[in-house]
Specification:
This protein is of the alpha+beta class. It has four domains: about 160 residues, Trypsin-like serine proteases (Thrombin, subunit H, Beta Barrel), CATH 2.40.10.10; about 140 residues, Beta Barrel (Thrombin, subunit H), CATH 2.40.10; about 120 residues, no CATH class; about 160 residues, no CATH class. Helices cover about 20% and strands about 40% of the residues. The protein has eleven helices and 32 strands. A hairpin with a 5-residue loop joins strand 23 and strand 24. Helix 7 packs antiparallel against helix 8, helix 8 packs antiparallel against helix 10 and helix 9 packs antiparallel against helix 10. It is elongated and about 100 Å long.
Length: about 625
């Protein structure tokens, strides 16, 4: 009797332990789905997520109910309570996409947290059918483009399945009204690796305007090549970490989450959008978790981005979809930063390589941020240093964009490295803003020289040997400039009066680049339909701010439109442009025509202007 009782107890214990044993970790491949119409309160299952390293761990899940229309019209959300380690860490940032299985069927992905100070780890789960819609959208888009071959695709639910009305089973005292203020997507911040804290503090507001939170992390210094590494076929099992890379290479900017489903080629993740851009193209990489911070306020995973294994193609409200083995189109950047001695020789030199995600809202800000971080982190940095930049941006079709500027400390307090980086970011922004064709980049190369002192020179005044002359004659002139904390500089120049210059008063203008660029730049900005070729030409025509420009201002109208200049325009032609067929074309008219005579190079930032009046007899 005792023997049988003990044997029965042991058998019962073994059966109970077997019933409570978690299933094996999920693997890539087809799986059965449990849609929200089948969800009932009290169901139990497991979520899979990584707490350290790369291997996911099981997290007990108890279904609390279904919150109808929580994510939008006919977009429900499953509410659940997490146990195991998640009860200690709470619903952490980076858990977005953690797959939830009930009775071996995939029900959805953890995507929301409920409250920040709740003693329970309550989460929201995006139903799997909403994530499958993202996969179906990618399939339709692929078929329309007739691209990417016959890769296997995820099955799309039928309309009746998508629009099924299901009953809600919320716990007592929980109402949609009070939950709506607590249900928020689990944060998927932009993780900047290899960036200085001071840089992130200054650029964070730019990305906050785009709806993203900036955090500092690790894991930079990888390859800038977005080509998937060998062995990508075995990457990103459900429950493992995944990252979308906005910058890769010596610096990394990434959004990190968790894989929900992998059918062997296509990957679903996050359970919500991270940039909400719709169709995208960015590298998709593995992510390894260093640790998971337990917190009732802001729990979060700290993770490193590893090798690239594919490309992210869709960023939708229901989740993110990526394709293994495919390569994203990025902008490769090579940056050389040199610290110079006072005699102009190179003291030290560093080279950086990285590639940047292509997207009209993000690329200019990412270019500006990465360049600012690159050139502001030198040990030779000084508040009084001057930065000289030169470079080239390559575009498809053999076109290129020239970059030349110098930036020194200003009275506004703006840091010179930030001004240099903003100059480059602005050029990329202008290319994207053209209304005719999206730019296709082949790469960019930039060299930045750090000069050990503030180099600013202001045009002070000028003098002409004569104030009256005949057309075709040459007038000797002197121009005087005042450098920052230095003695006055004097330059002797010759101004050639054109042979056909009409009698009357004209001006000789000594100016900086901005003075001459202003009218042409205004004309380009006025045309909302300016094309890519015109934008490139307009930027390439801009003068550099480290030169003194000597121009003859002739007393006849000039018209600027797009990248074109019409000098010495007769009054009748100007009247026709203002009232005739070109009246609808935006242009800028000036009372004087600029005839550029000389450009005198200086190894300083030149600012200001001064003019002399001469009479042509």
């Amino acid at each position: 009797m005792v023997y049988r009782a003990v044997l029965g107890f042991l058998i019962g214990a073994v059966l109970t332990a077997a019933a409570q044993a978690p299933p094996q970790p999920p693997v890539a491949g087809k799986v059965e789905f449990l849609e929200s119409a089948q969800i009932q309160p009290g169901m139990k299952g497991y979520a899979w997520t990584v707490f350290e390293g790369a291997d996911p761990e099981p997290v007990p899940v108890e279904i609390l109910g279904l919150l109808k229309n929580a994510l939008g019209p006919r977009q429900d959300l499953i509410l659940a309570k997490l146990g195991g380690r998640a009860a200690q860490t709470n619903v952490a940032g980076g858990m977005s996409g953690s797959p939830v299985y009930i009775n071996g069927k995939l029900a959805g992905a953890i995507s929301r947290r409920v409250s920040v100070f709740s003693p329970d780890a309550i989460c929201g789960i995006t139903p799997i059918e909403q994530m499958l819609e993202v996969a179906a959208m990618e399939e339709r888009q692929s078929l329309r483009a007739s691209a990417r071959g016959s890769a296997p695709y995820l099955p799309a639910p039928s309309p009746s399945e998508l629009l099924a009305t299901v009953a809600s089973g919320l716990p007592a005292g929980w109402t949609p009204e009070n939950l709506a203020t607590w249900l928020v997507p689990i944060e998927s911040p932009l993780v900047f690796s290899g960036f200085h804290e001071s840089v992130l503090r200054e650029v964070a507001p730019l990305f906050r305007q785009l709806g993203m939170t900036v955090v500092q992390g690790g894991g930079g210094g990888g390859s800038a090549d977005p080509t998937p590494v060998p062995g990508w076929e075995k990457a990103l099992r459900p429950g493992q970490g995944v990252a979308g890379l906005l910058v890769a290479g010596d610096m990394t900017v990434a959004v990190q989450g968790t894989v929900t489903y992998n059918d062997g080629r296509r990957v679903l993740a996050f359970g919500h959008s991270f940039l909400n851009l719709g169709p995208v193209e960015m590298p998709m990489g593995r992510s390894e978790v260093v640790m998971t911070l337990s917190s009732s306020y802001q729990p979060n995973k700290f993770a490193n981005v590893r090798e690239v294994v594919g490309v992210v193609r869709q960023d939708r409200s229901g989740g993110v979809l990526g394709i293994l083995g495919e390569k994203a189109e990025m902008i490769p950047l090579a940056v050389t930063v040199r610290a110079l001695k006072e005699d102009g020789t190179v003291r030290s030199e560093k080279r950086f390589r990285y590639s940047v995600f292509v997207q009209e809202r993000y690329t200019p800000n990412l270019i500006m941020t990465t360049l600012y971080n690159t050139i502001s982190g030198l040990n030779e940095f000084s508040e009084q240093a001057t930065y000289r930049l030169s470079g080239k941006v390559g575009l498809a079709g053999g076109r290129s964009l020239s970059l030349t500027t110098m930036q020194a400390p200003t009275s506004s307090g703006a840091a010179a490295p930030l001004l240099v980086a903003s100059y480059v970011g602005d050029r990329f922004n202008r290319l994207f803003l053209n209304a005719v064709a999206p730019p296709r980049f082949t790469g960019a190369e930039v060299t930045v020289d750090l000069l050990p002192e503030a180099r600013i020179t202001t045009i002070e005044n000028a003098w002409a040997a004569v104030t009256e002359a005949r057309a075709g004659e040459t007038i000797p002139v002197k121009v005087f400039l005042r450098p920052f904390r230095g003695g006055r500089i004097e330059r002797d120049l010759q101004v050639q009066l054109p042979a056909g210059l009409p009698p009357g008063q004209h001006r000789i203008l000594f100016s900086d680049a901005d003075t001459l660029n202003r009218l042409q730049g205004t004309a380009g900005r006025m045309n909302r339909f300016i094309g890519l070729d015109e934008t490139i030409a307009l930027i390439n025509q801009e003068r550099s701010n480290n030169q003194l420009y000597v121009s003859l201002l002739q007393s006849s109208p000039a018209v600027y439109y797009d990248d074109k200049t019409m000098p010495n325009l007769p009054a009748s032609a100007l009247n026709l442009m203002q009232s005739g067929p070109m009246a609808s074309r935006p242009f800028v008219a000036s009372r004087e025509t600029v005839i550029e005579q000389a450009a005198v190079p200086f190894d300083t930032v030149v600012s200001g202007s001064y003019s002399l009046t001469i009479t042509v007899k």
